[in-house]
Design brief:
single chain, alpha+beta, 7 helices
């Protein structure tokens, strides 16, 4: 898939995060079978929004559910599907991300899609999973520009290539840590002695705080300090983190994995404001129906999953950086502007603090 712009990812400037190696493309689609699609809406002077779809596998997810859990970091949000996922420990639809006021309409579109799939003709209950952040600073959020058509387009666009990042899909109108936010991805692959498992992360960044990269105080150095009020964008909040793994984890340990992802956010300067809706959705692509010769998988023991905890922390941190590095300056509603992270200045600050 073509990149949306020429801005680098974090590793392109020599920024290394953590100790584990990345997957082949350092993105969530490094987890085999998983697909991502975007629908980006940029219209006129005030529509800056979109939809991002994550499909855990290429089959009928309603008929071939994946083990899953959702961890709530701060519950000021509108995530649809939470209670059933955590009650039954599985996801039965693709996962959608969009803006706050479009959650219900996106859910309608997702239900239409699931009901239309061959084999679902007699389905009478669907639990759509739809997350959101509020892009109302740049976007005409009250205009309800996301509906069934846009959801269907994102689902049909999904493929297993490295997804676009930055100001695309559900990240089109988002703002994070005082700069233009967006969609970001990263992955980790454990060494063979730890099981060779992969962990992939996709983030929708729209949260407050003062940007820190590898310990370097980027936000302070660039005059975007949340503490001093220089950011000027403290109306924003919320983040959704989608975590995929090919490791054999049940719902209980997927929830534990999701909870560790918040530690990766903290490394970036995230503070989980009062009005921040912070949700962490984790699923495993290793499921009973995927094993034709052995219908029941063997789940990892509790004592074996600590490396996965570290992997998800590292991948989440780097995914946030990629969302900022790849995002581009955007002007939107009421002439509001969210400026892109200045790459060369950031590089110099990282050198100053020996963080490259």
């Amino acid at each position: 898939m073509q990149k949306q712009n020429d801005r680098p990812r974090a590793r392109d400037i020599g920024l290394k995060t953590g100790v584990f190696p990345t997957g082949p493309a350092n993105t969530i689609t490094d987890v085999p079978g998983l697909a991502v699609g975007h629908q980006t809406l940029i219209r006129g002077a005030s529509v800056r929004t979109g939809v991002t779809a994550i499909l855990p596998h290429p089959g009928n997810i309603f008929r071939d559910k994946v083990p899953a859990a959702i961890y709530v970091g701060n519950g000021f949000g509108k995530l649809i599907g939470l209670s059933q996922v955590n009650e039954l420990g599985e996801i039965e639809t693709p996962i959608l991300l969009t803006n706050t006021l479009s959650v219900a309409r996106a859910a309608d579109g997702l239900i239409d899609y699931v009901l239309s799939l061959p084999g679902n003709e007699n389905v009478r209950s669907v639990n759509p999973v739809v997350g959101e952040t509020n892009d109302g600073f740049l976007n005409d959020i009250r205009g309800w520009h996301v509906g069934t058509e846009e959801v269907t387009a994102a689902l049909l666009a999904a493929d297993t290539n490295p997804p676009e990042e930055g100001s695309v899909g559900a990240g089109t109108g988002t703002v994070a840590l005082g700069f233009k936010g967006g969609i970001g991805c990263a992955s980790r692959q454990l060494p063979s002695e730890l099981g060779s498992h992969r962990v992939g992360v996709l983030v929708q960044t729209n949260f407050g705080g003062t940007l820190t990269i590898n310990g370097a105080p980027i936000g302070d150095e660039l005059g975007r300090s949340y503490v001093t009020g220089d950011v000027g964008l403290d109306h924003v909040g919320s983040v959704v983190v989608v975590i995929a793994t090919d490791a054999g984890l049940d719902a209980r340990n997927l929830r534990r994995l999701a909870a560790r992802s918040q530690l990766g956010l903290a490394r970036t300067g995230y503070i989980s404001e009062n009005g921040s809706g912070d949700y962490f959705i984790a699923f495993s692509t290793l499921r009973d129906s995927a094993n034709q010769d052995q219908r029941r998988i063997t789940h990892l023991r509790n004592e074996d999953i600590t490396p996965l905890f570290r992997a998800v922390i590292e991948a989440t941190e780097e995914a946030v950086y990629n969302s900022l590095f790849r995002a581009t300056t955007m002007q939107g509603r009421d002439n509001h502007v969210a400026e892109e992270l200045p790459i060369e200045q950031t590089r110099e600050i990282l050198r100053k603090y020996n963080a490259l």
